[in-house]
# Entry
Amino acid sequence: MIDQVDVVVLAGNGGLGGFPHKALLPLGDKVMVDHVVTALKNCPEVRKIVLVGPREDLEKFYTPEGAGGGRFFFAEAGESLLDSFRSGVRTLEETGEFQWVLACTGDIPFLTTEALTDFFERCRSLEADFYYPVIPKEKAEEKFPGVRRTYARLQDGTFTGGNIFLIKRNALEHCLPIAQEVVSLRKKPVALARLVGIDIFWKYLLGKLKISDVEKRAYELLGCRGRAIITPYPEIGVDIDKESDLELANRLFSGNRRKEG
# Structure
C-alpha cells in the first residue's frame, strides 16, 4: 500500500542564470526548489524529505530534523543525478525504516500537491515495484504552450517523461546498477540498443512500440515490475533546464502574482 512515501529531492546538480545551483534560483516569492518542497510537504502521503545539494544554503530555508522537530534531512550531491540519488537514499537509511522512496528533481517549480496526490492514487491502482509518470503531448502543450520537451512517439500516443520516480526500497538494489549502465551508455546508441533489445529499438523507430512492451522489457532486465503512469498533469514534467525555460517560468509566476494582487 502506497500510504507513506519518503522523498529525495535532487537540488544540487546544474547551474543556470548565474547561479551554481539552479534549484536556488529566485522564482516568484520563493527559490525554485521551495515551490517543489511546498507541493511535497502538503501531500498527505509524504513523510521525510531529504534535500540533496549544498547543505549550508538549503538550511537557510529548512529546519533540519532534530532542530525544532523539522521533517527535513540533508545529503551532499554526487557527480551525477544518480550519484546524488544514492546519497539521498543513504541518508534515508540512516534515519530509519522506509518502504517507498520518491526521487524528485528540484527544478520542477510548477509541481502541485494535486498532481502528486493524483499520481499516487494512480499508482495504487496498479501493482508494481516502481512507477514512472508519462505525460501526453497534448496535455503538456495545452497547459504550457510553446514549452520545448523531448517526446517519444509510441503506439499508445506521444509522451514526454516526468521528473519524479517512485520505487520500493527492496527494488533499489536491482534497479540502480542497470540505471547506472543505461546512463553510462546514453551517448552510445548501438550499445544502448543492445542493452534494451534490438526488437525494442526497431519497434520504436517504426512507431510500433507500446508502453506494455517497455514494461515487459524492464521486467526482463531488472527482475522488478515497473509501470508507466499516464498523468494529465504536465506540472510533473516541465523542468527548468534552459534560459528559455527560466523566462517562461518568470512570466508565469509574475502573471500569478498580478492575478493574486
In short: The chain has ten helices and eleven strands. The domain at 5-243 is CATH 3.90.550.10 (Spore Coat Polysaccharide Biosynthesis Protein SpsA; Chain A).
